[in-house]
Amino acid sequence: MASNAVNFLIGNVLGEFKDSPRSVMTLDSTGDLVLLASKHVLNIVNISSPYVGDSSNLPYNSCKYPNKNVKWEVKAAQWNPHKTESSVFVITKNHVADIFVHVNGKVKLLSTLQSHTRAITDLDWSVHDSNLLLTCSSDGNAFLWDKRQLGPVQLFETLQSCSSSQVKWNKLEEHIFATSHDRDIRIWDGRKTDRPIYISGHLKKIHGLDWSTHNSKLLASASEDETVKFGTTPSQPSITTSAN
């Protein structure tokens, strides 16, 4: 029987961190720095020169920041995608999001965002405004934040007992974003908090969501039902399905 397995090319191992598990990894916009986060520690590694010296036996060229809140595991993390703010990143722990800045080999906590009532499940920096950040949560709601302010700018409330697992900004339209709720998707306009567009198409929970980089109406979603679906917004689309 022919195998459907795909062989991937595995590159050289740059380094290993075995002192404690890391739950989240994210690459910055320069492609040089990797954030490895856990509830105990944050490591920032320069992958272009991962070691202090020429030998792999020397310590890693990394910044280590002790994570003070050891009760909750880090669930999501993302560097700011803008060049002017490329040293800024955010991590989430339970219902809290912490914004940090990495400068001259040191990490500093800038602010803590706290308005969700249950665990934050996803986050996304705006590609249009370096100060704006979206979070979604098991409480079913999404918050829009401005990193220059302590409180949320806007609440996008579902009014239903259905958790939200994904949130993604539209890459071409600055006010539009999408959230996933179990098997459904909601398209929001940041200027109209009470009128989302509903898209239903999956048979099981959605775990992946993203917008096209060349078509502002094209959205992709991936689900536990073993399909990836592509559709257009705002009207209910004819959906193309790719099954495993």
UniProtKB/TrEMBL annotation:
SMART domains: WD40. WD repeats lie at residues 113-146. The keyword Endoplasmic reticulum does not apply. One of its GO terms (molecular function) is signaling adaptor activity. GO terms for biological process: cellular response to amino acid starvation; positive regulation of TORC1 signaling. The keyword Kinase does not apply. One of its GO terms (cellular component) is Seh1-associated complex. Keywords: WD repeat. InterPro entries: WD40/YVTN_repeat-like_dom_sf, WD40_repeat_dom_sf, WD40_rpt, WDR59-like. It comes from the Eukaryota. This is WDR59.
